[in-house]
Amino acid sequence: MHFIQRWSPKTVGLVAAAITVVIWTSFIVIARASVKGTLTPFDIGLARIIGASLVLVPLGVWLVRRDRVEAVQNAAPDSSLKGVHASSLFGLSPLPLRVTAICGVFGSFAYAALAYSGFTFAPAAHASVLMPGSLPLWTSLLAVPLLGLRITAVRALGLALIVAGDLLVGGASLLHAFDGGQVWKGDVLFMTASLCWAIYSVLTRRYALEPVRATVAITVFAFMTYVPLYGLLLLTHVLHSQLLSAPVGEVLFQMGFQGLGSVVISGITFNLMVQHYGPVRSTMITALVPGLSALAAVFFLGEPLHWNLMVGLALVTAGILFGVRKVNFAIK
Predict the structure, then answer these.
(1) In the chain, domain spans
(2) Disulfide-capable partner of 201 in 98, 125, 151, 279 (CB 3.0 to 4.6 Å)?
(3) What is the pLDDT of residues 40-70, one digit of tens each?
(4) Are 217 and 105 in contact (CB under 8 A)?
């Protein structure tokens, strides 16, 4: 992280935003291509957590030990509001237990469980619209009571344009959610997953969490909750797993992309983006993901290019231009 300190805040924000958008877009495209794969959604969730934990759990141990040494050398208290010198979960999380648990529930455990479960009921195209597309709306609504922010008229217009663009991009597929069956369950899960991530993004700003520490903490929490629960559900035959029968390459790929890519890399860059742009403007930037993932699906998955995609992209872009203007960021 030392080389990042030599960059200007503007450069850090732009690079973090670009990396986050690319990884999130890739996540949607890969999810679309993987819906017929061997692994179940809960298997993918486990691979995501294990892959991230291989890197972040040892990093958490190192951070906690370093903090304790610095606390002794500087005669600093063993805790603080931001959790800089506090630890929890047997010295694996570099944040206090309360912050680790709250952020871990919404930013890792619940988000992963809800998002991957949604794919069992609804197609991935619904996820591309309902998860990243609804983030600006959820985050703006949450930032009002939690951060004391107010939504100006210009920002409200930007939000309206983004919502309209996202609906146009996936409107045709979303209409089929009300034809009957269980598709609506997946849509509810996707929307709830988006809400969980919005809560997490607002909490990281409210607690002024460092990007690396926040990512480590939520991964440690997921490792210590999701993994035991996954094993318990397997032993009680409530959950069916394909991990042992799936190709090794598929499992390793999911651990690498879902764990290292989606959690470690994009987790840190997303928090860096929140630090620079704030949670509301950051999630408005990620509203690029539905349109970009739809375009990527045209080139990589052979999906058709319809007029609503182009118009939707134009509306989303216009909404982002309104939303990221600093003049619209106001505090009560």
Answers:
(1) 2-331
(2) 279
(3) 888 888 999 999 999 999 999 999 999 888 8
(4) no
